[in-house]
Amino acid sequence: MTEAEFEALRVFLKSRSGLALSPDKRYLVESRLAAVCTRFKIDNLSQLVREIRAGRASALEKATIEAMTTNETFFFRDKAPFDLFQDVLLPKYLKERAATRRLRIWCAAASSGQEPYSLAMILKEAAPRMPGWHVEIVATDISTEVLEKARVGVYNQFEVQRGLPIRFLVKYFKQVGDQWQIAPEIRSMVDFRYLNLIEDFNRLGQFDIVYCRNVLIYFDANLKADVLRRIAHVMAPDGALLLGASETVLGITDTLTLDPAHRGLYAKTAPAAAPKKLAVGIG
Amino acid sequence: MSYCLIIDDSRVIRKVSREMLEGMSFRVAEAENGEAGLLACRAEMPDLILLDWNMPVMDGFSFLTKLRATPEGQHPKVIFCTTENSLEHITRALDAGANEYIMKPFDRDILTAKLQELGVLPVSHTA
């Protein structure tokens, strides 16, 4: 693959998925796209770039984007964001939404489903305290492949051990050979949908809680700011946003403010506190 | 410093587990079967026990039953760490007083997650 071809791939990935690939990631392209070449019976990466440039093969484009996105995830990843949901956010919204008894949650980079299913299991445990409540978990991802895995909800032995408490494995999974399938009662709580974060997502409606963890790190600063502004736009006025451990809004957008008591938790900036031109953009 | 006892008849598993746990600042002792494990517990009750199921002399399930039958034996957090990976085994272990369960093979990530779940290892960050 020539420099020009690598550059063409970088431009393609950036424009279609937002993925900002630095020049030193050439090895990553070569290792991850080799399998795509084999699958599509393409001789080499040069030919793959030519096919993409010709714009004739949308399946190939999709497979290329999917191969380059990172789908690392596990149940209750980092633990703290889920403790926060269980101990802080859920009690808060149970009180504040008592009149409507409705709660909407969005997992914006759901990958193979472990994050939304972790939230669903917490909600199932809390169900006795929530009679008559309607909770909706919308889980989106750019990869149709991982979304399909998420919908089926079958995980291997390693996947169910990384972060999943054993009592939840016993309670909410069925053993199928050497795999484990999540129970239909948990699967039915999550609505998996395809979504590319660089595109408009207003149609998803308004959310009380948004998990957008470990995806913005792959975007450049402009796209990060854009996505964060649009996330703020779909958050309820008192909504909550959770970012990944290494992510921040600091210096990127003023539309969101860190909760000083909880690392990784953000609220919409109060209109009066935000600069005028940014406040206009807040829904 | 928390004290962990590894009970496993495999020298390799004991060595690998010890390295992982010492890397997490645990003080570690080893026993090669349940009976030796009970003796070690009588000498000093651990905070954490990593327990194999199938061992000669006394298996892990018998060890756990005897351990939990005593008042002082309520203290340690017990993680089964075994190739027995059926739902039936897991349920039996939990009913007998195990706190967590690891299906071999395992790695540092799995062990770390289990220890954090039990609260014997701090979560490295809070986001």
Automatic annotation (TrEMBL), chain A:
Gene Ontology MF terms: protein-glutamate O-methyltransferase activity
EC number: 2.1.1.80
Name recorded for this polypeptide: protein-glutamate O-methyltransferase
Keywords: Methyltransferase, S-adenosyl-L-methionine, Transferase
Stored InterPro entries: Bact_Chemotaxis_MeTrfase, CheR_C, CheR_MeTrfase, CheR_N, CheR_N_sf, SAM-dependent_MTases_sf
PROSITE patterns documented for this protein: CHER
Catalytic reactions on record: L-glutamyl-[protein] + S-adenosyl-L-methionine = [protein]-L-glutamate 5-O-methyl ester + S-adenosyl-L-homocysteine
Stretches assigned to the CheR-type methyltransferase domain: 1-271
An example Gene Ontology biological process: methylation
SMART domains found in the cross-reference section: MeTrc
Cited Gene3D superfamilies: Chemotaxis receptor methyltransferase CheR, N-terminal domain, Vaccinia Virus protein VP39
Top-level taxon of origin: Bacteria
CDD domains for this protein: AdoMet_MTases
UniProtKB/TrEMBL annotation, chain B:
Keywords from the UniProt entry: Phosphoprotein, Transcription, Transcription regulation
Highest taxon in the source lineage: Bacteria
Keyword Phosphoprotein part of the UniProt annotation: yes
One Pfam family matching this protein: Response_reg
Boundaries of every Response regulatory domain copy: 3-119
Any GO BP: phosphorelay signal transduction system
Listed InterPro entries: Bact_response_regulator, CheY-like_superfamily, Sig_transdc_resp-reg_receiver
Modified residues (4-aspartylphosphate): D52
Keyword Phosphoprotein (UniProt): yes
Protein name as catalogued: Two-component system chemotaxis response regulator CheY
